[in-house]
Amino acid sequence: MINSSKNPLVEFQGVTIKFFENNKEYIAVENLNLNMEKGEKTAVIGESGCGKTVTALSLMGLLSGSAKITDGKILFDGKEISTLNSDELNKLRGKDMSMIFQEPMTSLNPLIKVGKQIDENILEHSTNKNKKEAKARTVSMLKEVGFADAEKIYSVYPHQLSGGMRQRIMIAMALINNPKLIVADEPTTALDATIQAQIMKLLNKLNHEKGTALLLISHDLGLVNNICEKCYIMYAGHIVEWGKTKDLLENPMHPYTKGLINSIPSIENKGKPLNSIKGFVPSVEERKNKGCVFADRCDYCMDICRKIIPKDKITEDRVIKCHLYNEKDK
Ligand code: SF4
Predict the structure, then answer these.
(1) In angstroms, what is the span from residue 254 Cα to ligand 1's centroid?
(2) What is the dihedral of CA 49, 53, 58, 61, to 10 degrees?
(3) Whose CA is nearest to atom 5 of ligand 1?
(4) I want to staple 236 with a disulfide (CB 3.0 to 4.6 A). Which of 7, 41, 53, 293 is the partner?
């Protein structure tokens, strides 16, 4: 059965995340259930504003001040982490779990040479504070992420590198302590297509060689299809469908997943108008708390869809949140 886990690394159990602003509360993510096995490559796919980055940040304990987990729990390697304080989280982050952001410049210190920044990550999580050994490990990791001239790169500042090189620095920093999990939030969106392919090849190789699990946050179905074994489709703060990536993309069942896949431009449709899903993803302020979150954009919407939130329909290899698949709802 698809939702049984043998060797779980990450477990979101009924997690709801709300933003509290100006005495109002807004639901960003609702009743999220997501599992990742050790060493697995899993994707969360959705349009901008669907809640995928908030999900990633909640796992890393990096939610902004106005956002809070109000229900459910997050487990990492069997231990609940959603209640840890910042000191306890700091011990995990950069060691057992690391995150790669879309724009590396926002995460790198522009005033410190890149090699030193990676050294700091080693020294912070090690009882051995030997700086020479840290440098040797950093240079070796820079080679692993594809810098032939690693010694030279060690001594440059972030602004002296291209976007693709900076992203490889971020990957080196994320991997330096052999984490069990890397969370990559749109890691290649700001890069051109050739560099994007290099970065994803590198993450894939490190997963094979070191067994590092990868949680990829993306809107790019093609990229996810090439990399991840399992994917979750997210819409307006809800997981609406999930399953094995190849199977799900070849045979989408939820109307939103179908719409996403139909929207991909293809050579066969060259010259024809592009397909798109009508309407827009509702912002957190616009979300309704009644019925299916996709009802306003769905071509199959029925009366029940506007009144009752659909339950998960669980099959051997798929989970779908839609009234169309619950016989008694139709
Ligand atoms: Fe469409 Fe209804 Fe299914 Fe929602 S529950 S996706 S509105 S058919």
Answers:
(1) 8
(2) -130
(3) 322
(4) 293
State the distance from the centre of ligand 1 to the C-alpha of 324, rounded, in angstroms: 7
Residue holding tokens 């090699």? 115
Please give the chain's pLDDT, 330 residues, in tens: 666 777 899 999 999 999 998 889 999 999 999 999 999 999 999 988 899 999 999 999 999 889 999 999 999 999 999 999 989 999 999 899 999 988 777 789 999 999 999 999 999 988 877 999 999 999 999 998 889 999 999 999 999 998 889 988 998 999 899 899 999 998 887 677 777 788 888 888 888 988 899 999 998 898 899 999 999 999 999 999 999 999 999 999 999 999 999 888 777 777 777 778 888 888 888 887 789 999 999 999 999 999 999 999 999 899 999 999 987 766
For residue 237, what are the CA distances in angstroms to 130, 139, 147, 180?
Answer: 45, 41, 39, 26
CB under 6 Å to ligand 1: residues? 255, 292, 294-295, 298, 300-302, 305, 310, 322-324
Cα–Cα distance for residue pair 259/263, rounded to 1 Å: 6
Tell which one of 296, 302, 308 to mutate to probe ligand 1, the residue whose CB is within 8 A of the most ligand atoms.
302
Supply the pTM of this predicted model: 0.91
Mutate to test the pocket of ligand 1, among 253, 258, 300, 330 (most ligand atoms within 8 A of CB): 300
